[in-house]
């Protein structure tokens, strides 16, 4: 790993934790699998991985993923473009015809340590 490249990089990672409405976790996962991930890519948002918890109490209601952004500024601009996208609005509306899927979203921006194995 070239530490000088990492130090000069403005790249950030965004940890997002979704707390699903009871009984809606699989619908949320399907929305990401079928539509959201593709829309992220359309808006320059690189998804690194998606997870579901193995143990309760989180198993039935928690969906976690990490996005990579070129910078905090790019993240803000990309999220705005994503939220304003007519295709996203249609996907969200269709997936929530029988009620919302998410109760709460936690978002945390992260920067890697000098000993991280990302590069």
Task: Give a short summary of the structure.
This protein has 119 residues and is an alpha+beta fold. The protein is built from four helices and four strands, in the order αβαββααβ.
Please characterize this protein's 3D structure.
By secondary structure, this protein is an alpha+beta fold. It has helices spanning 3-8, 25-42, 72-84, 86-95; strands at residues 12-20, 46-52, 62-69, 102-110. Strands 2-3-1-4 form a 4-stranded antiparallel sheet. Helix 2 packs antiparallel against helix 4 (86-95). The longest helix is centred in the first third of the chain and has 18 residues, at 25-42. The radius of gyration is 16 Å and the shape is globular. The N and C termini lie close together (6 Å). 12% of the residues are buried. Mean pLDDT is 92; it is low at 1-8.
What distinguishing features does this structure have?
single chain; about 120 residues; alpha+beta; 4 helices
